[in-house]
Amino acid sequence: MGLIFHIDVNSAFLSWSALAKLQAGDEVDLRLIPSIVGGDMAKRHGVVLAKSIPAKAYGITTGEPVVNAFRKCPHLVTVPPDHALYHEKSHDLMDYLLNICPDIEQVSIDECYMDYTPISEKYASPEAAAAFIKDSVLKKFGFTVNVGISDKKVLAKMASDFKKPNMVHTLYSWEIQEKLWPLPVSSLYMCGHSSVETLKKLGIRTIGELALADPEILEAHLKSHGLTLWDYANGRDTSQVLPEPAKAKGIGNSITLREDVAERAEAQKALLHLSESVGSRLRASRQLAGLVCTEIKYSTFQSVSHQMALEAPTASTDVIYRSACALFDELWNGTPIRLLGVRTAKLSEADDPVQLSLFDYDTHSSEKQQKLDAALDQIRSRFGKDAIKRGSLLDSHDNYQKH
């Protein structure tokens, strides 16, 4: 049985900023007092990016406005983010972990998965290996990590979120009833605010209640995402540690928002803008997409994404947009948003035969919609991409930095 570690830096941004200040001669360790890493209120980052454990005791949460945090704790100490420092610390950590085990999949600036199999003969047990990693990171770098251990990737991640800091936790498949099921559904990986509210309406408040629920009912209310949550609640996950990220065979765009977005309507404008761009590129390459993915990066720098297969391949802006919005509603937990992305995959040639149902025809590939999309593409090609806009996108492009 293969085992997987999930290694997560505790309050990464705050820990790394605290260490830098101590090295510069500061006498107070930010980790030991109510403190946050927050943005410049006069500029773009007005939210809490990271918090100390003493700050958490005041009810301060990651992602909330800095002004709210000061209402909860007037003597709160705040420091601005130093992203160059954070990338340097992240690089050093990952290099060190690669020397311990070559099979690492980095999933964000402060977390990664590690396949325990290649190093299993070097340690008395997985717990011993995880303890060595935890202790050696603290000794070498001066900051702490949590290590979650499991036979499933998703369970390893949730294990690392148990009691912090500087801890090793296991969450094996056979431990989920004891350790996972009593927790609220909001603790489940990928269960965002919208999903939590839907589950509450169904009388589902704990992960155990979700695990024992009828998957058909979950699918009816949450579509495919409901089945994913049901799988996770039951400890089902077949994904493996991928040391090299898979090359995406698809077409997509993402937008960094100059000002963090906290309203659904504003996020939908960005998703429409992205869907138009992606649809246009699909049509220009004479390809159809069979899968749509929505990506969110929060102001906290946490990234989440979710995808859905389409009933029929498409290059329609409207279909891509509706799918992207549905995925957004499943993912978004209410935290201010830094970046949005819409990507498509499972591409096929536009001339390939496609089997449609009578119900698919009008919404997925109507001749009228194809002609409208083609006409818009032609106008933009001739007169520029801003020659014609949807009314809902007027005056909204100033918030976009497209990648």
Structural topology:
Blueprint: E1 4-9, H1 12-23, E2 35-38, E3 48-51, H2 53-56, H3 66-72, E4 77-79, H4 83-100, E5 104-108, E6 111-115, H5 126-141, E7 145-150, H6 153-160, E8 168-170, H7 176-179, H8 193-201, H9 207-211, H10 215-233, E9 250-261, H11 264-284, E10 287-298, E11 303-314, H12 317-331, E12 337-349, H13 358-365, H14 367-383, E13 400-402
Parallel strand pairs: 2-4, 7-8
Antiparallel strand pairs: 1-6, 1-7, 2-3, 5-6, 9-12, 9-13, 10-11, 10-12
Helix pairs in contact: 11-12
Distance, first to last CA:
41 Å
Supply Rg: 23 Å
How many strands, which pairing sense, and closed or not: the largest β-sheet? Answer: 5 strands, mixed
Number of strands: 13
Strand percentage: 15-25%
Strand order of the largest sheet: 5-6-1-7-8
- In terms of quaternary structure, the protein is single chain
Poorly predicted ranges: 356-365, 392-397
Mean pLDDT, to the nearest integer, reads: 86
**Helix/strand class:** alpha+beta
- How are helices and strands ordered from N to C? EHEEHHEHEEHEHEHHHHEHEEHEHHE
Counting DSSP H or I runs of 4 or more residues, the number of helices is 14
